[in-house]
Amino acid sequence: MVGTFYRSPSPESKSFIEIGSKVAENTVVCIIEAMKIMNEIQAEAKGTVVEVLVENGQPVEYGQRLFKLKQS
Q1: pLDDT per residue over 48-61, tens digit each?
Q2: Is the whole model's pTM more than 0.85, yes or no?
Q3: Distance of CA 9 to CAs 5, 32, 47, 53, 64, Å?
């Protein structure tokens, strides 16, 4: 396990992105907690979020896909 996936900065906060959200290469899309450090993850491409592939609080691995994106 690399870390834990979080869709928002805190449990009370709104998710960084939702299905249908438009993102750019510098858009923060989630947080991965690894060794008690919260790492903001940015989109790697410009487009629209089609699907979220990971549940909030789920462990994730290196190279695991987190979102499906329709590039624009």
Answers
A1: 999 999 999 999 99
A2: yes
A3: 11, 10, 22, 18, 21
